[in-house]
Write a structure and sequence with these properties.
Order of helices and strands: EEEHEEHEHHHEHEHE
Number of strands: 9
Strand order of the largest sheet: 6-7-8-3-9
Helix content: 25-40%
Distance between the termini: 19 Å
Number of helices: 7
Length: 210
């Protein structure tokens, strides 16, 4: 069990309940789809699983140990559990695709040759190597989505959380994305993703949580 949530409760300001006693267990190496209607708390759950949000009650466990919320633990946690947001504009901020994808590996203090290798591999996996020098604001929505995923992939997380990863992608881009994610799973990564696409969840996942 690489990641787990037990009895999570979370209420947004204004007394808007999002999670009410939620339990979830994620096994290492699995592909887990999370289904639910709009407003069910899917995104809120992902934000708890990488430490962006802290529960009002309950706990999150990483590798069978309760997490902490001090700066050092959060840094290690987010290096282990990467999150790709539904809207890439909430995630991308650098001047070019290369700069954005390299930001995470550089923050890890990796040597320049390794940063370059990770960025090149992530861009190739997302089939956007030709966009490396392009300014972020000149990308289409689908290109931004792939750039955001590449930025997290370059961190080599053991768990990858994706919020509606195929939303806004055309069928070919979706096929390429799933192939890239499958290669990550083949290398030992764990994939947890939210989706409204029931066919995708049933066809591509090892398990579905509702």
């Amino acid at each position: 069990m690489i990641l787990a949530a037990a009895g999570l409760h979370y209420t947004y300001p204004g007394s808007v309940p999002a999670l009410q006693g939620l339990d979830l267990q994620v096994s290492s190496g699995e592909r887990l789809a999370i289904l639910g209607p709009n407003g069910a708390g899917k995104t809120t759950l992902l934000l708890h699983l990488n430490g962006t949000l802290r529960p009002d009650a309950g706990e999150v466990c990483l590798e069978m140990r309760p997490v902490r919320y001090d700066r050092r633990f959060l840094a290690d946690w987010r290096a282990t559990v990467g999150l790709v947001l539904q809207d890439p504009d909430d995630q991308l901020f650098a001047g070019s695709v290369w700069q954005d994808v390299s930001f995470g590996p550089l923050n890890l203090g990796l040597p320049t040759p390794e940063v370059r290798q990770r960025v090149e591999a992530a861009l190739a996996a997302m089939r956007i190597s030709d966009l490396a020098a392009r300014p972020i604001h000149m990308l289409s929505f689908g290109q931004k989505k792939r750039a955001a995923i590449a930025g997290v992939m370059a961190m080599h997380p053991r768990v990858l959380l994706l919020d509606e990863p195929t939303g806004g992608l055309d069928p070919l881009a979706e096929t390429h994305l799933l192939a890239a994610l499958q290669r990550l799973v083949g290398g030992g990564a764990t994939i947890v993703y939210t989706t409204h696409d029931v066919d995708l969840a049933c066809a591509w996942s090892d398990r579905v949580a509702v």
